[in-house]
Amino acid sequence: MHVISASPENVTATPNATMTGFAAPSRGSAELSSWHVAMSAGSAGPEHSVSREQVWTLTAGSLEVTCAGRTEKVAAGRTLVLPPDVPRRIHAAEAFEAYVVMRADGVVSVPGEEGTRVLPWAR
């Protein structure tokens, strides 16, 4: 059993959002990663795809997600399931907060870039 507390060394801030890592292999989880996302109103992440399914549960605000050419608004209290290997882009229509879960071995691909990126908050 592992009990994980939020810690400053598990926070990653990007120009688009702040991610606080919780469960991850580096913190005792063998298979899953979970993290909290906070994104300010008007921010948007880059178009990208992730090699593993992600489950996002919004706890505050709302986001707009474009996935496979379809755009949906997701509000607090709802859960979004994003399929693996499909281009997506998250836009904060208003500030939002969400908890995300995925398999720990997921990597990100960005169109026009070679190779993949790891998600440091999920490792």
Automatic annotation (TrEMBL):
Residues 36-97 form the Cupin type-2 domain. Gene3D superfamilies: Jelly Rolls. Pfam families: Cupin_2. SUPFAM superfamilies: RmlC-like cupins. This is Cupin type-2 domain-containing protein. It comes from Streptomyces spororaveus.
